[in-house]
Amino acid sequence: MYSASASQSPPLPFHLLFFLLTLLLLLGVSWYTSYEAILEGVFYQLKFLLVVSPLLLLIVLHWLSSDGLSFLVPFPEKESLHRAGGSPWGVGFLLLLLILMISYQSYFQDSWFPLSSR
């Protein structure tokens, strides 16, 4: 009794499909521009965190080495750490210098080797 074409819904009109596609395109562009600004701010803060993280790590290690957690972890005597040689602040300064040189690599490359940029 029932034919196969009667149980199917009629196709959407071409004008409605075109309108929906245009609407989705405009919404997508507006959402992209607002999310782009938000993500740019988040990436800027993460970049700052990555630059500051070695310094924060050094501060935490300095706090731990100066009896910060001596009640939880038994540390060796205080002078034995300094007999090993090297200063943690010197290592921190070297890490900071390395991070700055990596961040400004193109600037240093252009100023030190001006002929290679041509």
From TrEMBL:
Alphabetical keyword list: Membrane, Transmembrane, Transmembrane helix
Q: Transmembrane segments in this chain: where?
A: 12-32, 44-64, 89-108
Q: What is this protein called?
A: Uncharacterized protein
Originating species = Zingiber officinale (Ginger)
Identify the taxonomic lineage of the organism of origin: Eukaryota, Viridiplantae, Streptophyta, Embryophyta, Tracheophyta
